[in-house]
Amino acid sequence: MTQSLFYFLAFVAIFSSLLVVTAKNPIHSVLYLILTFFTLTGEYILLNAQFIGIVNIIVYAGAIMVLFLFVIMLLNLNVESEPQKTNLMKFIGIITGGIGLVVLTAALKSTDPSNTVVIQEVDMGLVKNLGQVLFKEFLLPFEIVSILFLSAMVGAVLLARKETK
After folding, report:
1. Which family does it belong to (predicted)?
2. I want to staple 44 with a disulfide (CB 3.0 to 4.6 A). Which of 37, 53, 80, 136 is the partner?
């Protein structure tokens, strides 16, 4: 059951990512990208990496997609105002895509399926284990980064505020 669900999500992810590239409407392209992110989150959860799955939903499907939609709607893209691509640029794109496909195919053929790693630990990838490692072994770097982020936020607010007299 889990393996068939994994393959189904992989098929949907590949199909929706192809639709991202081939969609004529940029809004539809962003919606297909959101579907791709959700299927990848399903893959992460099946691989027992719940934290990465939740971060994928929050960061990518949430914040980044809202930003993409905002920019697309702000730009008001029209086919008439878009510069036309020359035949040379189309040819270069086809050659580059073909080279990428050849490299991907060679990389997949060079992998050895008998050299797979089987993880015996069931709770690997859980948020509880990540929190324990983060707050026990890496507490000092975590706190230093939090102070750095706090000072960056204060600096951004101070730079962005208007001078009032």
Report:
1. Belongs to the complex I subunit 6 family.
2. 53
Q: Report the SS3 class of residue 83.
A: coil
Of the candidate CATH numbers 3.40.50.2300, 3.40.50.300, 1.10.3720.10, 1.20.120.1200, the domain formed by 1-78 belongs to 1.20.120.1200
> What's the average pLDDT block by block, 10 residues per block, for the chain (165 residues)?
89 93 85 91 87 85 79 68 76 90 86 66 69 86 90 83 62
User: What distance in Å separates the CA atoms of residue 4 and residue 52, rounded to the nearest whole number?
Assistant: 21
pTM of the model: 0.58
For the chain, the structural domain boundaries read 1-78, 123-165
Which pairs with CB-CB distance under 8 Å and at least 24 residues apart come from 29-34?
Answer: 30/65, 30/68, 30/69, 30/72, 33/65, 33/68, 34/61, 34/65
Return the amino acid letter for 67. Answer: L
Nearest to 70 by CA among 33, 35, 37, 27: 27
